[in-house]
Design a protein that fits this description.
- The protein is α+β, with helices and mostly antiparallel strands and 118 residues long.
- The protein has one domain: Nuclear Transport Factor 2, Chain: A (Roll).
- The protein is built from three helices and six strands; from the N terminus they run H-H-E-E-H-E-E-E-E.
- A six-stranded mixed sheet has the order 2-1-6-5-4-3, covered by helices on one side.
- Strand 4 and strand 5 form a beta hairpin.
- The radius of gyration is 14 Å and the shape is globular.
- The model has no long low-confidence stretch (mean pLDDT 96).
- This is Nuclear transport factor 2 family protein.
- InterPro entries: NTF2-like_dom_sf, SnoaL-like.
Length: 118
């Protein structure tokens, strides 16, 4: 694993751990005001919009929900995860995220999931 991949992997592990703990403060440490999260509902830019996005996500996937990591791949400054989750609120048989890093911050993040609301 080269230096870029090691740093990308470190940021992804931090992000995934913070997400699993529904720790918004820790998640936001991975982003900047210039960061963008691209969703099926359109792009979100800046910490306020990204914060609201994750706050909404935590409703569907609260801490303690079943979560399966199907794939985690890192190449240079790009990371990809495929996952599934199940909670009292929603079943998500497939979700994907792609992260493009600049240094130790997520510059662009794409996210999509197939969600079945219970």
């Amino acid at each position: 694993m080269n230096t870029n991949e090691a740093l990308t992997n470190e940021v992804l592990i931090h992000h995934l751990t913070a997400f699993g703990n529904n720790d918004l403060e820790e998640i936001l440490k991975d982003y900047t005001e210039e960061s963008q999260v691209w969703t099926p509902n359109g792009p979100l830019k800046g910490l306020a919009a990204i914060s609201q996005f994750f706050a909404d996500y935590f409703v569907a996937i609260p801490t303690g929900s079943a979560f399966t990591m199907k794939q985690l791949t890192v190449s240079h400054h790009v990371g990809y995860v495929a996952w599934a989750s199940d909670s009292a609120i929603a079943q998500i048989p497939m979700g994907t995220d792609t992260f493009f890093l600049e240094g130790d911050k997520i510059k662009f993040h794409t996210v999509a999931d197939y969600r079945i609301t219970k």
